[in-house]
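In the design runs reported in the main text, the only information available to the sequence generator was the tokenized backbone. The following block is the verbatim input for one such run; it is reproduced so that readers can re-run the procedure and compare outputs position by position.
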């Protein structure tokens, strides 16, 4: 099968991850342009590391530093890599080759290209993400002209270690939210078949952890980083074209509680499905059982507000 050329569309995952982080960290920022353009691409496997920092008591003190790195395995022995970062007080950066950073998928433990190296030391426990190269400074946009965006030398080295067990969306999710979502759809045998197929072809798990390391940007000097965030791994076939829109909210609380809440619209099956989990400080995990989060009320116009209120229960 030929490799599908990278589509210059805004990565949906990123838009939503950034949206979630920004929403959670009390940030005000417009979503990337065309943030909900579906990607007509099929992923074979994908690893997403999304890490954010927030040292906040009052909203005014919130620290919106984050790192998003992604590795997606494609057909024909190729891998696509992403890198986005934001350093509080310095700015936002993305890889200048994005979204066309393709590397050879030769190793099973280490992937590297365009200055970025992602390596795992222990499955589900420890990853290393290093970068040494040039990044484009400026807020995210779909297309850059050659003259735009200053290229800045950036060097960082982060080690991620898990702080929770794995939440397996296919096994650990609470059936109530799925039952509720399905009950909202007109019932046909075709719907049932599409749901069955979807559930058999795509798998995903996720865990929380902490990344520690150091970053050096241009002549801003060195900064120590300590970021909490998720490692999300999905595999099988995920057809982005089937997803109309989704919003993902990630939260980490001072007492160690971590939560994930996604509301997603897949017109072929469920137009309003809620999924997610809570990890309690004692390590216990629970699937989201109910939430009042409504897609229609969350950034439908593509603009991310400073604050959102959602309620949910998990059991
Ligand atoms: C880290 O992940 C491993 C493998 O999933 C798990 O056994 C371990 O309990 C996790 N560590 C913590 C602190 O949750
Ligand atoms: C923001 O958080 C990062 C990561 O913990 C830290 O390195 C940085 O110094 C913080 N910045 C500010 C302005 O507090
Ligand atoms: C959901 O509950 C939260 C907290 O009570 C509230 O702020 C929010 O407005 C509710 N959302 C909807 C759509 O009812």
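Verbatim output:
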């Amino acid at each position: 099968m030929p490799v599908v050329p990278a589509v210059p569309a805004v990565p949906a995952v990123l838009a939503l991850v950034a949206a979630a982080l920004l929403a959670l960290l009390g940030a005000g920022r417009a979503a990337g342009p065309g943030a909900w353009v579906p990607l007509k691409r099929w992923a074979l496997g994908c690893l997403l590391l999304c890490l954010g920092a927030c040292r906040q008591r009052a909203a005014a003190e919130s620290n919106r530093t984050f790192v998003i790195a992604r590795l997606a395995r494609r057909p024909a022995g190729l891998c696509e890599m992403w890198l986005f970062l934001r350093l509080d007080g310095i700015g936002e950066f993305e890889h200048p080759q994005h979204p066309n950073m393709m590397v050879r998928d030769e190793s099973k433990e280490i992937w590297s290209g365009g200055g970025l190296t992602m390596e795992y030391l222990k499955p589900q426990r420890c990853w290393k993400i290093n970068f040494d190269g040039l990044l484009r400074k400026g807020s995210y946009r779909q297309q850059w002209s050659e003259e735009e965006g200053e290229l800045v030398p950036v060097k960082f080295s982060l080690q991620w270690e898990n702080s929770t067990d794995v939440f397996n969306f296919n096994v650990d999710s609470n059936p109530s939210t799925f039952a509720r979502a399905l009950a909202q759809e007109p019932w046909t045998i075709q719907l049932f078949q599409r749901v069955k197929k979807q559930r058999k072809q795509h798998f995903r798990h996720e865990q929380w952890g902490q990344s520690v390391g150091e970053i050096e940007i241009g002549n801003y000097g060195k900064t120590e980083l300590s970021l909490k965030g998720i490692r999300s791994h999905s595999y099988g076939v995920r057809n982005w074209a089937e997803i109309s829109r989704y919003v993902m909210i990630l939260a980490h609380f001072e007492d160690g509680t971590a939560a994930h809440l996604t509301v997603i619209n897949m017109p072929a099956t469920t137009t309003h499905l809620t999924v997610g989990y809570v990890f309690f400080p004692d390590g216990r995990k629970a699937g989201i059982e109910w939430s009042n989060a409504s897609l229609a009320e969350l950034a439908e116009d593509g603009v991310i507000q400073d604050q959102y209120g959602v309620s949910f229960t998990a059991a």
